[in-house]
Amino acid sequence: MGCIVEADDGDDVVMEPPSNFSMVDEGIYRSSCPRPANFSFIETLNLRSIIYLCPEPYPEENMEFIRSHNITLFQFGIEGKTEPSVSTLKDAIRGALKILIDVRNHPVLIHCKRGKHRTGSLVGCLRKLQNWCLSSVYEEYQHFAGIKSRPTDMRFIETFDVVCLRQCLHSLIFQYQGYGSKKRRLLYKEENVQKSRIASV
Amino acid sequence: MGCIVEADDGDDVVMEPPSNFSMVDEGIYRSSCPRPANFSFIETLNLRSIIYLCPEPYPEENMEFIRSHNITLFQFGIEGKTEPSVSTLKDAIRGALKILIDVRNHPVLIHCKRGKHRTGSLVGCLRKLQNWCLSSVYEEYQHFAGIKSRPTDMRFIETFDVVCLRQCLHSLIFQYQGYGSKKRRLLYKEENVQKSRIASV
User: Fold this and answer.
1) For residue A116, pLDDT beyond 60
2) Between chains, do B19 and A134 touch, taking CB under 8 Å as contact?
3) Which family does the record assign (chains A, B) (predicted)?
4) Which residues of chain B fall short of a pLDDT of 50?
5) Which of B103-107's residues contact partners 24+ apart within 8 Å by CB, and which partners?
6) How far is B84 from chain A, CA to nearest CA, in Å?
7) What ipTM was assigned to the predicted interfaces of this complex?
């Protein structure tokens, strides 16, 4: 492999990121399902949570890893082989998005099995929430899905209603940070939570 | 395009990232050469600097943009059409890496023309510096270069000597942050600069 690089501290850890790994935004990562060989790399991300998009139980080795690293698992089961109904998919993606943009869960890793379709759909919807134009959202989706790109995923992303979700989130506990600089990052604001708690009593 | 999403502040800015845009690591981005249509998106990154890897003069519109946003341009001219000699390429990549990992220059955007070969080679060498195994480095390179992947770039990345560069940087002004957590991020440390300044007198 030719991939042994000597570390300065005498600790020769070669980092093997999971395939389809990438940084999505500050505190947000995406990948395929990490295997044990990837754990030493995953450790460097100092994750607080994982969003897992498959309906299958979380693999035992991964479960041990997250337990020992105090990582919270959020599971939103989306079928990978048979096509889920649009409304099931919508509910799962909406739920996952709420966890994803809550900075209290960061750093967070999103993964399904191969990091292509389910992960790509969630990231696509996040990009819409960040006001990316659709052609850029598609380009990113296709980067990761490659020749396996699915028109159904792309249609789902296109029709996913972020305006409604944004208003909903906005009125609850989130607020855009840095309006002035046009930064679209979502930031948790304590006072708003208080308000919504009072409102929901 | 179906990409108009109403922003909450009544400011309907649709973000159009440059093609091949991605976040490489905290404070480090990559893309193709930004066009004016991409400027409102680029603004959201709050860049401090740009690493430009082409020998051609920086496009006039881009120059105006970076001037008005107080962004520093670091140019390392690498030929795109004819193959540069390995030693020329090495010098350029080494120089660019030194700028790239200096957090005083972050947030930084790396770009060439299409964000495939020159940008991909620089990011590939950065990944080696971060101890990524070669197969993961190649996977990332190929994500962006696609069918245009060049074996010469991949050979260059494989043979690029990061051990020497790491020691050189390490002895100057940089130091790995978070050894304990195995985090490979490079951090600028003021006291080391002082030492190196004294040492070089």
Assistant:
1) yes
2) no
3) Belongs to the protein-tyrosine phosphatase family. Atypical dual-specificity phosphatase Siw14-like subfamily.
4) 1-11, 172-185, 187-201
5) B103/B27, B103/B186, B103/B187, B103/B188, B104/B48, B104/B188, B105/B48, B105/B49, B105/B72, B105/B74, B106/B26, B106/B27, B106/B28, B106/B48, B106/B49, B107/B27, B107/B28, B107/B29, B107/B45, B107/B46, B107/B47, B107/B48
6) 24
7) 0.79
